[in-house]
């Protein structure tokens, strides 16, 4: 069986699992002639779901035989032995899984195609449970102590509950692998399984044959030849001009053109800017960037059609309108135009409409890191703002205003770890970050730390906070 055949069957089996058709998925996996360690692992997981523990053990044996460093395979075989009540072998596999972690807090198998993280504290948790079954309560307590040392915040409650049970010499629940999660083939390899048409279908672009739909291969057909270019140009609106210099637009109403382009001037303004049409688009180009084209029989060939001029372009003419172009740096950069002397309300309202955000939720400033002096608001003297404009252009920075979220303590919390935050009932706590749904990071007075979300209640955001 080739690699492509194996990959195709692997992908088909995983698709069946997604559709909850587990028997068909298992049948396809078992039909693969030379399974790798990941496919053996998937077979073992499906057998576990069917509670066929002997077949699951055999599949995990194959996975470990193919890859002796696959910690999650040792972990799953240990769970299989636990369900078969073979506790000594179960403890051995959990120990091998912990060794395969090599001192890391966890292994994230996402890069290998498995959406699962194996935590060292969970492996130690299960080792402690097996030791408890064997009556080795001291060893169980030592394993849980190790689990506390390498725990993560999301696993804190799990280890704490197990520790309290061990102190009372009571058993607790096994941490199990979600058996419906399987190793998936590389999505880039799977995409290459589909057949691709690299040639495509030929399409008639131009032909002298009416309604020509021929799409095969044939000798070239005669094409329409435009031998009289001036006649064509004269039929278009406006007067033809050739572009001499490249223009980089600075506003939305200017056109991007390069030397050699032919544009058609509709109107020349008093400020030396011409309204032109180019490639079906209408916009402004400096008239001193253009040269008229003369197609009379005695005219010479216009300069610049074959090669662009090498001299520097002339200065851009100044627009005589009383408009200022404002470049706004947000999460992206954009530009707006306003009449010079506009009020703050007009400015912030136009920016808010452009961003589709409430104007009151935005902060404007002259510089990137806004300070009290650089912030622009309703109290700012707008005359000083517009005086900063040079050649009708101005740059500003904008960011959303984030309201501060606060909590009120419902109960007193005494920290049990150095990183925890202690507080008394009724204290006000400022939120710094949300770690997960159970734990938060905050500040109470001058102290910062983490605390359980169940001990506090969020305060409503007032107008002053905003």
Automatic annotation (TrEMBL):
The keyword Ligase does not apply. Keywords: Cytoplasm, Repeat, SH3 domain, TPR repeat. One of its GO terms (cellular component) is cytoplasm. Residues 236-295, 402-461 form the SH3 domain. SMART domains: SH3, TPR. Pfam families: SH3_1 (PF00018), SH3_9 (PF14604). Transmembrane segments: none annotated. It is found in: Cytoplasm. GO terms for molecular function: superoxide-generating NADPH oxidase activator activity. Gene3D superfamilies: Phosphatidylinositol 3-kinase Catalytic Subunit, Chain A, domain 1, SH3 Domains, Tetratricopeptide repeat domain. Residues 296-318 are annotated as: Disordered. GO terms for biological process: superoxide anion generation. InterPro entries: NCF2_NOXA1, SH3-like_dom_sf, SH3_domain, TPR-like_helical_dom_sf, TPR_rpt. The keyword Cell membrane does not apply. Belongs to the NCF2/NOXA1 family. This is SH3 domain-containing protein. It comes from Periophthalmus magnuspinnatus. The lineage of its organism: Eukaryota, Metazoa, Chordata, Craniata, Vertebrata.
């Amino acid at each position: 069986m080739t690699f492509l055949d194996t990959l195709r069957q692997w992908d088909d089996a995983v698709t069946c699992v997604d559709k909850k058709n587990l028997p068909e998925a298992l049948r396809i996996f078992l039909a693969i002639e030379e399974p790798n360690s990941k496919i053996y692992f998937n077979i073992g997981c499906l057998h576990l779901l069917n509670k066929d523990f002997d077949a699951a053990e055999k599949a995990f044996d194959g996975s470990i035989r193919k890859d002796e460093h696959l910690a999650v395979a040792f972990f799953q075989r240990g769970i299989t032995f636990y369900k078969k009540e073979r506790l000594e072998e179960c403890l051995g596999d959990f120990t091998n899984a912990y060794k395969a972690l090599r001192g890391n807090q966890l292994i994230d198998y996402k890069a290998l195609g498995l959406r699962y993280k194996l935590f060292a504290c969970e492996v130690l948790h299960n080792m402690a449970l097996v030791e408890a079954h064997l009556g080795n309560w001291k060893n169980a307590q030592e394993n849980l102590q190790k689990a506390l040392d390498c725990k993560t915040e999301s696993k804190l409650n799990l280890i704490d509950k197990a520790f309290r049970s061990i102190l009372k010499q009571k058993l607790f629940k096994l941490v199990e692998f979600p058996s419906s999660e399987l190793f998936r083939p590389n999505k880039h390899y799977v995409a290459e399984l589909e057949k691709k048409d690299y040639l495509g279908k030929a399409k008639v672009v131009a032909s002298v044959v009416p309604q020509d739909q021929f799409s095969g291969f044939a000798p070239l057909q005669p094409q329409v030849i435009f031998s009289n270019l001036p006649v064509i140009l004269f039929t278009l609106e406006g007067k033809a001009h050739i572009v001499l210099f490249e223009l980089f637009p600075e506003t939305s109403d200017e056109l991007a053109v390069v030397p050699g382009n032919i544009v058609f001037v509709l109107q020349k303004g008093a400020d030396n800017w011409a309204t032109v049409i180019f490639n079906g688009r209408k916009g402004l180009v400096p008239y001193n960037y253009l040269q008229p084209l003369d197609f009379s029989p005695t005219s010479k060939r216009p300069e610049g059609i074959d090669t662009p001029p090498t001299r520097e372009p002339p200065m851009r003419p100044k627009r005589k309108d009383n408009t200022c172009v404002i470049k706004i740096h947000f999460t992206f950069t954009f530009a707006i135009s306003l009449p010079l002397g506009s009020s703050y309300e007009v400015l912030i309202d136009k920016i808010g409409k452009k961003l589709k955000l409430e104007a009151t939720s935005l902060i404007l400033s002259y510089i990137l890191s806004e300070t009290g002096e650089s912030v622009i608001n309703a109290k700012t003297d707008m005359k000083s703002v517009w005086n900063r404009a040079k050649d009708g252009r101005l740059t500003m920075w904008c960011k959303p205003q984030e309201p501060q979220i606060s909590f009120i303590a419902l109960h007193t919390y005494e920290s049990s770890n150095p990183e925890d935050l202690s507080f008394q009932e009724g204290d006000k706590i400022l939120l710094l970050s949300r770690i997960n749904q159970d734990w938060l990071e905050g500040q109470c007075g001058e102290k910062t730390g983490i605390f359980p979300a169940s001990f506090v209640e969020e305060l409503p955001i007032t107008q002053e906070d905003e």
